[in-house]
Amino acid sequence: MKRTYQPNNHRKSKKMGFMARMQTNIINNRRKKGRKVLSH
């Protein structure tokens, strides 16, 4: 029997990754604020 969670890293990074965040304002706001680290 297979387990429930079969992670797909490519799809996850497209949804949650750095480049996906670049599309929204999250990264830009952090850059405007002058953060050293934009994302971990």
Task: Give an overview in words.
With 40 residues, the protein is mainly α. It contains 3 helices and no strands. The chain has helices spanning 9-16, 18-23, 26-33. The longest helix is centred in the first third of the chain and has 8 residues, at 9-16. The radius of gyration is 14 Å and the shape is elongated. The model has no long low-confidence stretch (mean pLDDT 90).
Briefly characterize the structure.
The chain has helices spanning 9-16, 18-23, 26-33. With 40 residues, it is mostly helical.
List the helices and strands and how they pair.
Layout: H1 9-16, H2 18-23, H3 26-33
Q: DSSP helix count? A: 3
SSE ordering: HHH
| Mean of residue pLDDT values | 90
Largest sheet composition: none
Would you count the extended β strands for me? 0
Our estimate of the beta-strand percent is under 5%
- Describe the oligomeric state of these chains in a short phrase: single chain
Catalogue the unreliable spans: none
Indicate the radius of gyration in whole angstroms: 14 Å
Instruction: Tell the overall outline.
Output: elongated
User: How far apart are the first and last residues' alpha carbons, in Å?
Assistant: 35 Å
Counting helices, strands and paired strands, the structural category is: mainly alpha
> What percent of residues adopt helix (DSSP H or I)?
55-70%
Descriptive terms for the model:
about 40 residues; mainly alpha; 3 helices
